[in-house]
TrEMBL record:
Phylogenetic lineage: Bacteria, Pseudomonadati, Planctomycetota, Planctomycetia, Planctomycetales
Name of the protein described by the UniProt record: Betaine-aldehyde dehydrogenase
SUPFAM superfamilies for this protein: ALDH-like (SSF53720)
InterPro entries linked: Ald_DH/histidinol_DH, Ald_DH_C, Ald_DH_CS_CYS, Ald_DH_CS_GLU, Ald_DH_N, Aldehyde_DH_dom
Active site: E264
Keyword Oxidoreductase tagged: yes
Domain Aldehyde dehydrogenase: residue ranges: 27-487
Family, as annotated: Belongs to the aldehyde dehydrogenase family.
The organism of origin for this protein: Planctopirus hydrillae
């Protein structure tokens, strides 16, 4: 079966309501008037010109966040009232569901079935989860020697610089804003230059919800804008989701003021299928675990380890499902795969596909561009992949699946861990003991058993090794947005 684009249909693109910077509660142009273009990955046409923040704009945003943190109404607001504001933002997002889903799809290229069925529900759930935490961040009383009363309290870290990626723009806003706002911090956020539009729209809704000026600030731009946030001496914490190379630069730049840091970085996640697994469920999980969001997931199951006795059958089933994926206009509900986010990502993926072929892997389906307009890549599956091939070692961030056969649990555990990454992993088996043995042995921050890509706002997410520092989501995320203070009083 040849993968082809579905015929284009007319659709109503959402109105672009905001392209300016949000600083201190006001929407403004960049100080020097500069802008940059954001493009539609479906047709490579410009969507809008967006304000390009420079150092002067970042300085103003940080000053606004500092003022809001130290002397504004946010500083004295009851925790429960903070939670109600977060909850109201979630309500406004839900009320604007259709617009936001279409805007996310327009700017990013992901199928609207995913924007509506996955991203937005998770955004709303995450914010409501942290709305409930705002008045439940507590300390402890501690019995100490002598006539003293000692207790601890958790206080907000302060001004937080948050830099988010382009693969899940709205969801990453929720993951960052939720715990920071619940803890009482203030925010200077830079969305990815490829996908700034939904972040700006969410900031508009935050203003409508009633957040005081300066609590949430959004500065759009490129790496230089992010670097200005990281280097700013009045920023207390950096939360970054993106590449390991950028994270290393952030660590260097943040070192002079010892900023608190949270990193959620890349992965090369092993997805392990044993012969005793429910094969149909494992095949469906393998397809979803890699091809969801066009393979542009940090936890994508790009290394598919399959026990040798079922290898041929499994490959045939995976190839069949890959060929059945429907590429087309992502604003059509029956489209299951959209374009990659931009030209750079498209070119990177095509380079890795050629490397896979030249290094001896067998491309059993896909491996080519679809159409002559837009950044579409056919769902690609490589078989007979060895551990040292580039497609098995490097994060591709695209719809490219590598299948690697194995013979024993000891072998696959060793090979699964033979990577600098450690974000996620999965195992498929009916043997409960085997499942937990793998879960305990694989060095990854999240392990799924007989499922893949299951997320909940209550469950911590983050990586081992080069896949990150700290945790997002759950109660664990709140720890990274608070400082622990000890108070001791004499009883004499």
């Amino acid at each position: 079966m040849t993968t082809t684009l579905t015929p284009p249909r007319k659709y109503a693109a959402p109105a672009i309501k905001q392209t300016k910077l949000l600083i201190g509660g006001e929407w403004c142009d960049a100080a020097d008037g500069r802008t940059f273009a954001t493009y539609n990955p479906v047709n490579e046409e410009k969507i809008a010109d967006v304000a390009l923040a420079g150092k002067v704009d970042v300085d103003r945003a940080v000053a606004a966040a500092r003022k809001a943190f130290e002397s504004g109404p946010w500083h004295t607001m009851d925790a429960r009232d903070r939670g109600q504001l977060i909850g109201k933002l979630a309500d406004l997002i839900e009320a604007n569901f259709d617009e936001l889903a279409a805007l996310e799809t327009l700017d990013n290229g992901k199928p609207i079935r995913d924007s509506r069925g996955a991203d937005l529900p998770l955004v709303i759930d995450c914010l409501r989860y942290y709305a409930g935490w705002a008045d439940k961040i507590v300390g402890q009383t501690i019995p100490v020697r002598g006539d003293y009363f000692t207790y601890t309290r958790r206080e907000p870290t302060g001004v937080c610089g948050q830099i988010i990626p382009w693969n899940f723009p709205m969801l990453m806003v929720a993951w960052k804003w939720g715990p920071a706002l619940a803890a009482g911090c203030t925010i200077v956020m830079k969305p990815a230059e490829q996908t700034p539009l939904t972040c700006l729209r969410l900031a508009e809704l935050a203003m409508e919800a009633g957040f005081p000026p300066g609590v949430i600030n959004v500065v759009t731009g490129f790496g230089e804008t992010g670097a200005a946030i990281v280097k700013h001496p009045d920023v207390d914490k950096i939360a970054f989701t993106g590449s390991g190379e950028t994270a290393q630069r952030i660590m260097v730049d943040a070192a002079s003021t010892l900023k608190r840091i949270t990193f959620e970085l890349g992965g090369k996640s092993p997805n392990i299928v044993f012969a005793d697994a429910n094969l149909d469920a494992a095949v469906a999980g393998a397809e979803f675990g890699l091809f969801f969001n066009q393979g542009q997931c940090c936890c994508a199951g790009s290394r598919l380890f399959v026990e040798k006795s079922i290898h041929e059958e499994f490959v045939a089933k995976v190839v069949s499902r890959a060929k059945a994926r429907k590429l087309g206009n992502p604003l059509e509900m029956d489209t299951t795969q959209g374009p990659q986010v931009d030209r750079d990502q498209f070119d990177k993926i095509m380079k890795y596909i050629e490397l896979g072929k030249s290094q001896g892997a067998t491309c059993v389906t896909g491996g080519y561009r679809v159409g002559d307009k837009g950044f579409y890549v056919a769902p690609t599956v490589f078989d007979h992949v060895s551990d040292d091939m580039a497609i098995a070692t490097d994060e591709i961030f695209g719809p490219v699946l590598s299948i690697l056969p194995f013979e024993s649990i000891e072998e696959v555990t060793r090979r699964a861990n033979a990577t600098t990454f450690g974000l996620a992993a999965a195992v498929w088996t009916r043997d409960v003991a085997k499942a937990h043995r793998i879960a305990h042995s694989v060095r990854a921050g999240t392990v799924w058993i007989n499922c893949y890509d299951v997320f909940d706002a209550a469950a911590p997410f983050g990586g081992f090794k080069m896949s990150g520092m700290g945790r997002e989501l759950g109660e664990a995320a709140l720890a990274s947005y608070t400082e622990l203070k000890t108070v001791t009083m004499t009883l004499k």
